[in-house]
Design brief:
The chain has 473 residues and is α+β, with helices and mostly antiparallel strands. It folds into two domains: 353 residues, 3-Layer(aba) Sandwich (Rossmann fold), CATH 3.40.50; 109 residues, no CATH class. 30% of the residues lie in helices and 31% in strands. Strands 1, 2, 4, 5, 6, 7, 8, 9, 10 and 11 form a ten-stranded antiparallel sheet that branches. A hairpin with a 3-residue loop joins strand 22 and strand 23. Helix 3 runs antiparallel to helix 4 and helix 6 crosses helix 7. The chain is globular.
Length: 473
Amino acid sequence: MSMFNNIYIKNYKCFKDSNSLELAPLTILCGVNSSGKSSIINSLLTLKQSYDDISVTNSLKLNGPYVKNGTYADIINDCSAEKELIIGVSYDLERSAGFTSEEVSSSRYSISAYKNLARLYGTEEKIIHVDLSNTIAAHNSNGNTLSAQYIRISYDNFESVIEFVGNKKKNSYCIYAIQFPYEDKKINIRIDNAQCYFENFTFTSGYAKQYSTDIENINIGIVFSDLATICRSIMLLFKNLQYITPLRVYPQHAYVLDEESNTVGISGEYTPLMLKKYANRDVWFSEAPTSDALSLNMAKIKFKNVVNSWLTYIGLGNYTIKYADESLKINIDGHSISNVGFGASQALPILVGSILQPLDGCLILEQPEIHLHPRAQMNMADFLIASAMSKRELIVETHSDHIINRVIRRAMESPEINRNIKIYFIENGRSELVRIDPVIGAVIENENFFCQFATETEKIVTTGISNSMRQQE
């Protein structure tokens, strides 16, 4: 199951109307330039950098390490009369015991989030699967105050709803909770004029003199404490969201490892460190296929062997690392990575970041096709499919018809792959799901969906026939 199930956007940049995208282990966003693909990605990254920030402003962090939105006026849809920005996400949380030890070593963040909710709403043995959704709404003039936050928690046909509604003038909140866990009961409670404290979006504590509930003699301190636990669970889930920009770092003759990290970094800047740090770690993945058929055999394999298997399959060679003083050199087939073109340096962060991604995490990639020739792009598509089939989640933005066509072909070949991918064509702030039929391939009404290759091929054939006929005259 994917970590993120759904993205909901309204009035963010080009998305005027409510737009909801159901996600899959591999979700591909494609479309013409300035169609809204990046807006979908940036909405998620805006939430991530807001939850990652430890300031106490309780506001959307419009400008941060992942995305620069500008001002509130820059991101609110110009045609919207409401002037209210809404971004929402939903998640799957499952008890980690549902996987075998050979398959999974789940991230501590998702495990903690699951345990927090299971402890509040029931025992871990009782709750197997939790659906958690979180919606952020803001409507003020400068975008630096959160107007409302909505949390919905569902399991076993049970649903709990929590709303934080802020009053900017009074600097207080009204909190509404339906079916909220209190000791061994589920209560309905309304807390008026609550003073709340946040680490950005994450509610940490609060107090109130006025509240009403359907039972008597509750301890309001316990309610606030449990609210903080729920909000912390949401914050933890965003820790597993990673992003790799299309503008990845250039190859270098030597890399100085003077910083510590557990990810490849936004621009792939920590890729050399990851290659060194995790070279002999066992990871749950499949080596690349040895023929044109995409045969995936998931197993625990040494990280460096998996990377080299796929790097070779893509057509970029084998990597080795060499130490010199306090620096590290990366060679591709015996040559410095800086002397073999840009393909390897652009592909390595994607391979390393995907393979090291926790099995319950989500990785966002933009333009994985950069600096790769057509065959390499198609084989990169096979890698993205393999990553998704290993219980990792990817959201991929691409302009490559080679990647799209390879994914469609693999989905036609395998019903299981078909069930684990979704392709959306984005145009003018609207998304259209591309259905993949096992007989006819991509099914979509929009004539702009990667028709250029077929159209141009048809024109080449027509021109060739016309030229041949003229020569015979």
